[in-house]
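Record pair follows.
FIRST:
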Amino acid sequence: MTWASGIVVYTILWWLVFFMTLPIGVRPPYEVGEVAEPGHEAGVPVRTYLPIKVLATTIIAGALWGAAYWMITAQIISIRNG
C-alpha cells in the first residue's frame, strides 16, 4: 500500500465510521421532557457529543485502517491486478 492509497483508505474509513456514530446517544427535546426553543426544529438533538464522537471515530478508523493495512501487506487481500 502506498502512502497515497493509505491516506485514501483512512479517509474513507473515517467518514464511514463518523456517519455511523452520529445518531448514537442523541435525544430530541421531546424525549427528555423539554420543549424546543422558539424558532428551533423540534427534532434537533439536545446534545450532540461531537468531540467524543470525533475522538472515537479517529480511534476506530485507525484500528480498521491497521487491519486493512495488515491484510493488504500480508496479501490476504490483493488490490493489484493479476
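SECOND:
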Amino acid sequence: MVADFSGGFLSCDGGALLLRQVDLSMQLSRRVAACFSDYRNQRFVEHSVPELVAQRMIALAMGYEDLNDHNQLRLDPVIAASVGKNDPLGHDRIHPQDRGKALAGASTLNRMELSAQKSGGNHKLPCNPEMMEDLVLQLGVEALPRDSKQIILDIDATDDPLHGSQEGAFYHGYYHNYCYLPLYICVGDVPLWAQLRTSDHDACEGTNQALEKIVPVLRQRCPHAEIILRGDSGFCRESILQWCESNGLQYVIGLSRNARLEKEIEVTMIRIKERQCLCGTAVRGYKSFVYQTRDSWSRSRRVIGKAEMTLQGTNPRFVVTNLADEIIADTVYEEYYCPRGQMENIIKQQQLDLAADRTSTAHMASNQLRLWFSTLAYMMLDRLRRWGLYDTLLSRATAGTVRLKLLKMAAKITVSTRRVYIQFNSSFPLKDLWQECLNRLIQIPIHNSTG
C-alpha cells in the first residue's frame, strides 16, 4: 500500500455545484449584493460583492459556520467554481502570497460583516438593513403558489445564547442565560422574517410591525388567500389580536391557562377522567366557549379548551381564535393549532444546521447580518428540496441530511484553457438522484424582475 499527495486538486464539497445552480436560478447572490454599497477602490478589488455573499451563503449551506473556516476553504476549487470564479485554482491572483487561493479569506469576509456597524477605514461594504429585510421577505413569498387559498403564518421566538460582551446582551429568566431573542415568521417550511432582538422585551415585541410589512406582500402575491396567524401563548396579546381583527386576518393563538379558564372545562374534564379510568389510556375532549379577560382584552372572543387526561395527570390547554364557529373545536385545535410544532423544527434547522446562533460579533447590526445570511443559506437548501428533490427520498429531509447525503461528495477538478472539468466519485451512492436533481434545477427559469 502506497499513499501520497499526488491526487491533484480535490474537494469533499462536490455537491456545492447544485447550490450554484440554485443561486443562478434565484439570482440570489446578485440580489443580495444589491443590498450592499461598495466603496472600495475597484482597481484593487479581486472579490466582487456577489462573489463574497455567494461564498458566505454557500459555505454556510455546506456546513462551514465560522469565518475562520474560510482561511482553508479559500483553497477549495469546487467552492470557488460554485461561487462563480473564472479561475477556481487562484493561479491569476495579483499578489504572490494569494496565488492558489481563489476565494476571500476570513478577514475580508469579516470586514464585510462589520461594515454593517462600522464605516470608513477598512469597512467599505455597508449593508442596507431595510433592503435586506425586504429581500428576505420577497424571496420567501416567491416560494408560495400564486393561487394559494390559505396561508398560515407561524410566528415564534427562540433564544440565541451569548457567550461574551456582545451589544444588547441581557439575562433572560426563562432561558436562564444571556441571549438574543430572535423573532421568526414562516409559512410552512419557508422563512419570511428573521429579526434579531434583545431579550429584555416581551417575546412578541415587534410582531405588529412585522405583520404590517408581511401581509401586504402576501396579499399581492396570493390575492385570493385567507391568512391565518398561528403562535403560542407568548403572542396572545390584545394589540396582536386587535391588529388581526382590524386587518382581516384570522388567528389561532395559544392562551395561558388560569382558574377561570379551567372552570369553563371542569365538566368536560370530569367526563374525560371517567373515560380515562375505563380505557386506561390518554383521553381528550374539547369545548368551545366565549371568554373575555377582566381587563386586558377589549372584547370577548372564542376560546377552545382542551380537556386531556394522561397517565401522568390532567393536561388542560387553551387557544383563542376568530375562525368561523362552523369549524368545530377539535378541528381548530388539532388541525389548525397543533401543526404549529413544525415551526420549531425550522428554527432547529436554522440553528443546528446553518449556524443561525453564531452571532458572536460585538455588534447587533453585524449579528443581524449573520442571521440573514443563515436564513438565505436555508432558503438555498429549501429551494434545492422544492425544485430538485420533490417526490424523492430526500424531499422532506432536513437541511443537514440533504447536505450529508447529497452535497458532501468527493470531486476532482482539472482546469485547462478551454474548460473546468470536475470528476465525481464513481461509487457515490446517490449519483442517480444527484443527476436527476441537477437536471431538474437546470430547467428552472432564471428569476426576473417580475417574479
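COMMENT: The chain has a mean pLDDT of 93.
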